[in-house]
Amino acid sequence: MNVTDTPAVLAEGLRKSYRDQVVLDGVDLRAGAGEVLALLGPNGAGKTTTVRILSTLVHADAGAAAILGHDLRREAAAVRALIGVTGQFSAVDDLLTGEENLLLMGRLLHQRPAERRARAAELLERFDLGDAARRTPATYSGGMRRRLDIAMTLMGRPRLIFLDEPTTGLDPRSRHIMWQLVRDLVAEGVTILLTTQYLEEADQLADRIAVLDHGRIVAEGTPEQLKRRIPGAHLRLRFPDGAALEAAVSRLPEAVADEDLALRVPGDGVKAVRDVLARLGDDVPVEDLSIHTPDLDDVFFALTKAATKEQRS
Fold first, then answer.
1. What are phi and psi of 194, to 5 degrees?
2. Residue 242 contacts residue 264 (beta carbons within 8 Å)
């Protein structure tokens, strides 16, 4: 098997409990090399526990996993040499400068002095931290601290990076900068396992999404595949006056009234638009028409609500 054919992450039946609390209840995951797999779920769903197990920080009670072809239990040292982990809370040392944080990480990775100095300079430049290299992170903004945190993770050139809620607490601009950094890493062939509560983040970045709820994977697929699982696509038509709205209601009995002289009609795509306009005819003026499809918010709430009902039944 070629290296490119080897899954970056392959987990089967992962289980983890703390006393009487089941945190993971048979989790299966697979991520291909060079992909972004987003693990999506509410607080307490088991996302961080999954990352801690796959990054060798804790042992699963049951199940098996391999990282880039290396068995998680038997080859933990080899796994650690290939991965990087960035948590939702920055791990930088506020008593050191930004540059010193990177150099310390290089020493911990047993890099030669010249190699770690060159790598630190490269990452400071890449992450737009050159001007702040001699300052302590206590003076950094939240976005700068998070960029330094990821730069420290990259000192060892990992092939798989776990990003555990990396944009928590960041402002929108800093979040978008982080998204671009993730895209750049993937373009270089790095695999990303991303945990997040931000649905837009998963939609923007992920090749595949696994929805985790109460320790179980309740759905998995591409963002588009998940969206197609949820009904609710509709056309929204807005009319110039009450007379036009009343005429439309008589010709579209399946329509549901919306605010602002508008109707919702079930349907999606060009064919549905043509059909609705044909039924209205030329004598019913339409001021505005838009197509609405379910987004990841709809998917998330529908799937986690269904999982909760199943747990209670």
1. -110, 125
2. no
The set of residues, in sequence order, having a beta carbon less than 8 Å from that of 278 and lying 6+ positions away, is none
How many whole angstroms separate alpha carbon 25 and alpha carbon 42?
16
Three-state secondary structure readout of 207-267: CEEEEEECCEEEEEECHHHHHHCCCCCEEEEECCCHHHHHHHHHHCCCCEEECCCEEEEEC
pLDDT at res. 169: 83
Residue-wise pLDDT for 119-139, tens only, equals 999 999 999 999 999 999 999
Which two tokens mark 134? 């001699």
- Confidence (pTM): 0.78
In the chain, what are the domains?
Answer: 3-228 (3.40.50.300), 234-292 (3.30.70)
| Pairing of the two strands 208-213 and 216-221 | antiparallel
Among 46-50, 70-74, 131-135, 167-171, the minimum mean pLDDT is found in: 167-171
C-alpha gyration radius of the chain: 24
Contact 46, 53 (CB under 8 A): no
Give CA–CA dist 54/152, Å, rounded. Answer: 20
Residue given tokens 């508008």 in the structure block: 262
Q: What is the pLDDT of residue 104?
A: 96
